[in-house]
Design goal:
The chain has 245 residues and is an alpha/beta fold. Helix content is 31%, strand content 18%.
Length: 245
Amino acid sequence: MHINISPTKESMGKAAAEQAAEILNNAINKNGRVSFIAATGASQFEFINHLIRISSIDWSKTTMFHLDEYIGLPESHPASFRKYLRERLIDKVNPGKVYLIEGDAQDPEKECERLNKIISQKKIDVAFVGIGENGHLAFNDPPADFDIEDPYIIVKLDEACRRQQLGEGWFKTFEDVPQKAISMSIKQIMKSKNIICTIPDKRKAEAVKNCFMGAEISPEYPASILKKHKNCFVFLDDQSSIYLK
């Protein structure tokens, strides 16, 4: 794992985007195509804004997978991650292939099966992720399952996770925040050849300390598993890194 600390959120996003572009372009040059995982949420704002401006990336040669999505939420909802990805990334750069999680599918288990068949046939070159205030990775809240093999799983969101979504302004009330989601599993994320993890803001500083300081890797701090990945690049700003200085 490699840690990069930038003075601002903006410079953090730029540095992460430049690293991501290098990985994407290298894979395209070597293999003709590249597969990546896209995350959402406030942690990805600056990163995505810079990434879509990098003109050297041939997005027609990319395949995009979706990291997680609420169960029961239509794409029209302001908090829908599909809506987020379409507006901020997909409609801006038009990836060659896109596989989104249909969170409002009638049978979430069958939706997981559909996605699992597709992604199991792919090698993922890079995953774009963040971490939660509770240290979650994707929607794998603590204690996270480090052992499950299925690429996509149904998870229950804990109170801290749901309160974060409310605090970021995605929902009007706590009761509005869904209690379940379809999430990429920890093992599937860790299969990615490279991982770009962007973590801005002071509210994430405690999670950064718990997950990345010291040698402990624990399901209670799900993102601590990233310390085992040799090609994981963690990008912090001056606020999220306060306990590392």
